[in-house]
Amino acid sequence: MKCVICKDGEYKAGMVTVVLIRDESTVVIKKVPGYVCAQCVEYELDSEVLKSVLAIAESAFQKHAEVEIVRFVA
After folding, report:
1. Do the domain assignments include residue 2?
2. How distant is the alpha carbon of residue 46 from its chain centre?
3. Does residue 9 lie within any of the structural domains?
């Protein structure tokens, strides 16, 4: 599948780091399975992985964590 950002690269399965920021909180989620563009390194997540990532982030935001770094676990 062609990259939606650069329009030239192809997505390949890989691991990404997702950074989400809300107000004063930053959540870093490492080793998230996704599809990474070989050219521009833009990534996409499938819907189930995205749901998990958002749940992890929401948990950190609810704790009012200033910075939280976690490794993704499905």
Report:
1. no
2. 10
3. no
Q: Tell me if 40 is assigned to some domain.
A: no
Distance CA 37, CA 12 (A): 6
The tokens for 13 are 């399965």
H or E element: which one contains 32? strand 25-37
**What is the C-alpha to C-alpha distance for residues 21 and 30, in angstroms, rounded to an integer?**
15
Residue 20 corresponds to which amino acid? L
Token output for 69: 């770094």
Question: Is 49 within 8 Å of 34 (Cβ atoms)?
Answer: yes
Domain residues for the domain of 67 are: 15-33+46-71
pLDDT in tens, 6-43: 999 999 999 999 999 999 999 999 999 999 999 998 99
Query: What is the domain count for the chain?
Result: 1
Range 62-67 average pLDDT: 94
Looking up tokens 């609810």 gives 62
